Amino acid sequence: MKAGMQTLSKRRLLLGLFIIFVIMLLNNFSSRKSYLDLEENMTSIYHDRLMPATYLFRLNDLLYQKQLFHLSEGALVSEQINNWNRQMDSIIHAYEKTYLTTTETRYWKDFRQHLDAYNALEKSAKAANTREDFLNPLSGALTALRHLNEVQTTEGNVLQRESEVIVKQSVVKFYLEISLLLILCIMALVLVHYSGRNMHFDYSRN
Fold first, then answer.
1. What average pLDDT score do residues 109-134 get?
2. pLDDT at position 95
3. Phi/psi at 75 (nearest 5 deg)?
4. Could you tell me if 152 and 53 are in contact, meaning their C-beta atoms sit under 8 angstroms apart?
């Protein structure tokens, strides 16, 4: 009877060990996924938020330079204007390679429309074009850029909060794994103890 109880206890211990092993395995897979998610968030913060914010800042700076140029010079075309346009084309090309949210896409479309309107005026090279003709589309483009910068801040904060949650979850999973390891060790010791008693009992019978 006693030997039967010990056998039942050993089976329960083995089942417990198996369950803990499965939980640890699932926890390990979950932790790896969390690390991948965190890495993806960090990459996104740099490539899709910090770099675009830099591009937008540079576009904003170039547009302000154009605005000041038209206020002071009033000229339609100059080598300096052409140089600014080349820089803007390069920045626009780089920005459009980044990930754009739905809101970003809408504001970016507004920016491109205002910029195209400005470029059309610039290429027309008509003396009848006034400073106000140039400043209106420039003002619209600058407003769109301001909205885009706000989106960068908002999306960056979302990614930061998500990253903080992932880190906290990883800490919890780490402590869970440590706790399971301790339980696993205790159960293994108990199992060894039962095995030792059974061996002692068998030797005694002989």
1. 77
2. 94
3. -75, 155
4. yes
pLDDT in tens, 50-101: 899 999 999 999 988 877 776 665 554 577 788 888 999 999 999 999 989 9
Contact between residue 95 and residue 121 where contact means Cβ atoms under 8 Å apart: no
The one-character DSSP state at 97 is T
Is 144 a residue whose pLDDT tops 90?
Answer: yes
- Whether the Cβ atoms of residue 163 and residue 42 lie closer than 8 Å to each other: yes
- 101 burial class (0-12, 13-18, 19+ CB within 10 angstroms)? middle
Looking at residue 22, its amino acid is: V
For 98, phi then psi, to 5°, come to -80, 165
Q: Tokens representing 191?
A: 């199992």
Which segments of 45-130 does DSSP mark as H helices, in order? Answer: 51-72, 79-95, 102-124
